[in-house]
Every structure is written in structure tokens, then in C-alpha cells.
Amino acid sequence: MLGKGAFGVVQRGTYKDLKLCPSPFITRLIGYTTESEPSILLEYVDAGDLQHTKVNYTSIEITWVFANALVDMHSNEIIHRDLKSSIVLLCSKNYIKLGDLGIATNIRTQLTKYVGTRLWNAPEHDTHLYRNWVNQCLAHDPNKRPSAQEICEILEECIGKCISDTSLKGP
């Protein structure tokens, strides 16, 4: 086993989404089986992921691949729903791929309110601190906006609460 996703298994239908979205920026589907235990076979990407590996790519290169993968998915009416650094896969042969389409779905299907890896959820879904901070930053009167120091303190508090919350519910 090369790794394990947050859900432990590939969701049913993932191979169909991969099949409908051929892209040089997304891990290529080689095959699948439903015998005994459902499995999919994807191209091997051998140099780790963006979260756990020191990279020799620039931020521009990574962003360009990431954006192109999303364009290809969205043009095929597929949304990923679990974007994070650990699904940006690196190859020793100088290319980057977007992987882990385990909870990707067709945009026309009914979407659930919450999916994805909990610790990677957008802050606006989890915390009143974030909403208050954004509202302060967007205040019409510049004198009512937080200073750079205050912004850092608010973000540090927000991140600290997310990290210390053992129930993973966020602050």
C-alpha cells in the first residue's frame, strides 16, 4: 500500500470521474476491478506529495498545474471537493499531478454540505473568529481595520484553536 486517504477507501464511481476527465494534470486511470474488493489502478507518481516532500518546483509551476487540473475537471463538470497540499503529487521525472479524486463528483449531482478532510476545511466553514476577522479587515473606515500586528494575533489565535481542538470541530 502506497498510502491511505482520509476515508480509507476509494468511493464508488471515482473511476468513472477519472475516465471522463483525461488530463495531463491529473493522475491517469489505468484500470479498475470490482471483483472481491473494488480497486483502481492509477499511474505511479514516485516522488511524494507537496505536503510531505521538499520540492524543486516554484510556486508558479505548482499553481499552474493545480489550476490546469481544475480547469480540466470543471470543463468536464467534475469538482474535486478535497483540495489540499497532500493531493498535489510529485514525480522524479519533472512533472506534477493532482490526485485523490476519492470524493470528486459530477457538478450536476446533489452536493452535501460538508465533505473533505476536516483539518483542511476552509476557515469560513468552521469559525466565527475568521468571519469577525474578515469583517474587521473589510471595514470601510481604515481606522477601524486591524493593524498588521493585530491581524497576525487574530490568525494565530484562530489557528491555535483549530490545532488544539481534539474533537476536530474547529473553534
Automatic annotation (TrEMBL):
Per the UniProt entry, the signal peptide is: none
Q: Which Gene3D superfamilies match?
A: Transferase(Phosphotransferase) domain 1
Q: Name one GO molecular function term.
A: ATP binding
Tell me where in this chain the Protein kinase domain is found.
Answer: 1-171
InterPro entries named among the record's database cross-references: Kinase-like_dom_sf (IPR011009), Prot_kinase_dom (IPR000719), Ser/Thr_Kinases-Pseudokinases (IPR051681)
Output this protein's name: Protein kinase domain-containing protein
